[in-house]
Amino acid sequence: MKPIPIFIGYDPREAIAYHTCANSIIRHASKPVSIIPLALNLFDDYKETHTDGSNHFIYSRFLVPHLMDYLGWAIFMDGDMIVRDDIVKLWELREMDKDVMVVKHDYETKMTTKYLGSKNENYPRKNWSSVILWNCNSHPNRVLKPDYIQKATGAHLHRFSWIKDERIGELPAEWNWLPDEYGVNPDAKLLHYTLGTPSFHEFANTPMGSEWHRERILTEYCEQHDIFK
């Protein structure tokens, strides 16, 4: 059985978020997973040239097909997330005639500034690229080479402009739920703290933030005493 390849965005300014996200995946998974950090210091053929990013992985997510040698499927997700259900259920939503599959958010943000003072502007297809089921061997995705990504604009990449609209598949909203924008959803399978993880003091009490804190504690101290069961 091959592990499910899962690429998670890594930003050293909130490393605890990455590890918390990874722990939530592992705790709930029913099949093997291979978790790969998208950290800029790990690349020898890609140098970040963009200057408009709010995090360190805002463009490196588009390297996933390249990192997979344009073979098979893979999952990408931002590091500011936790998974509340079996990641295998997301994996099984793949549609072979799609190039990518995403939650097609359609909203306007509540805040113009998010964590660490980053601008938070509204734009078409905002947050579509924060969870991606990648069809890495699809012909359109073969254009995603390091030099292409380095030269492309954020608008081009995050709107999936190299893909025909009908080949962008749709995932259920609960697989990329934004509690700080949408509010509480007990049925959400993946929580995305897009304005800022509760690790930042100004977002410590964000909606459903207690679940992130719980996962962080599990990450730091493990479950050796079954404290949370």
Describe, in plain words, how this protein is organized in 3D.
- This protein is of the alpha/beta class and 229 residues long.
- 22% of the residues lie in helices and 15% in strands.
- It has one domain (4-221): Spore Coat Polysaccharide Biosynthesis Protein SpsA, Chain A.
- The protein has seven helices and eight strands.
- Strand 1, helix 1 (15-28) and strand 2 form a beta-alpha-beta unit.
- The mean pLDDT is 89.
Span between N and C termini?
Answer: 29 Å
**H/E element string?**
EHEHEEHEEHHEHEH
Supply Rg.
Answer: 17 Å
Quantity of strands, as a count: 8
CATH architecture, by name, is Alpha-Beta Complex
Q: What is the fold-level CATH name, i.e. the topology?
A: Spore Coat Polysaccharide Biosynthesis Protein SpsA, Chain A
Low-confidence stretches: none
**Number of DSSP helices?**
7
The largest β sheet comes out as:
6 strands, mixed
Coarse structural class? alpha/beta
Fraction in beta strands: 5-15%
Q: Kindly state the percentage of residues in helix.
A: 10-25%
Mean pLDDT across all residues, rounded? 89
Provide the CATH top-level class: Alpha Beta
Strands across the major sheet, in which order?
2-1-3-6-5-7
Which homologous superfamily in CATH is the superfamily? Spore Coat Polysaccharide Biosynthesis Protein SpsA, Chain A
Principal-axes geometry comes out as: globular
What's the quick description here?
By secondary structure, this protein is of the alpha/beta class. The protein is built from seven helices and eight strands; from the N terminus they run βαβαββαββααβαβα. Strand 1 (4-9), helix 1 (15-28) and strand 2 form a beta-alpha-beta unit.
